[in-house]
Amino acid sequence: MSELLIRQFPCLSDNYGFLVHDPDSGETATIDTPDADRILSEAEKAGWSITQIWNTHHHFDHAGGNEAVQAVTGAKIVAPSYDRHRIPGITMEVEDGDVVSLGSHKAKVLYTPGHTMGHVCYHLPMDGLAFVGDTLFALGCGRLFEGTPAEMWHSLSRLAALPDETRIYCAHEYTEANARFALSVDPDNHDLQVYAAMVEGERARGEPTVPTTIAAEKAANPFLRPNDPAIRARLQMVDDDDEDVFAEIRRRKDSF
Length: 256
Ligand code: ZN
Ligand code: FE
What we know:
By secondary structure, the protein is α/β, with parallel strands linked by helices. It has helices at 36-46, 60-63, 66-73, 149-160, 175-185, 190-204, 214-220, 229-235, 242-254; strands at 5-11, 15-21, 28-31, 52-54, 76-80, 92-94, 99-102, 105-111, 120-124, 129-133, 136-137, 140-141, 167-170, 212-213. Strands 1-2-3-4-5-6 form a 6-stranded mixed sheet, with helices on one face. Strands 7-8-9-10-13-14 form a 6-stranded mixed sheet. Strands 11-12 form a two-stranded antiparallel sheet. Bound molecules: zinc ion (ZN) and fe (iii) ion. Fe (iii) ion is lined by residues 59, 61-62, 134, 171-172.
């Protein structure tokens, strides 16, 4: 089984497009469709034919290019069954625990409500990577447009339980702003300080900060650390539940 090839490129103002190619079968999936023209031209440059679209959720910067990509390539559309009425043309509806194939590579669907109620992530355990859409960001997490803090905390906890070395492909380049917020709630965290300095350098050089890893996020991302004593002390929430501490961190970020 050959290793998957991943082509990552900026789309719109701060999205990332990802093309995932299996050299053995010749199959290629685009993760979401932030910008159909850009995705089609990247596939052409790589010499890959897009055969599948894997949607994480219904937002326009994720599914807005579905029809244009499908019209040109005939790709099948894999999307959460919850979004069947708001993502047009789904060919395969998926739910938690379903498995999607790209050649002989397998992606397990993780249902991760919070940012939206239909949101799913695609975890490829054999390949050690996951596409997490707008659920988990480098040093951040998605805004709660549809779900509750408790739902999002549960979703993030499932991602945090993936193996430490799992490479995490987030759908937006938000890391520099996320780092500023993270330092405001967890200023003495040495791992976070090192991470934030690295991000600053990467962005200054115009490099992406995505992918990240589960290990890096567990050490530095405040949204995965509501049980951390220093964060709890700072928020004066020493005896609260993790999900309440998470809710407070999310609330502060919304108005940061
Ligand atoms: Zn979104
Ligand atoms: Fe988005």
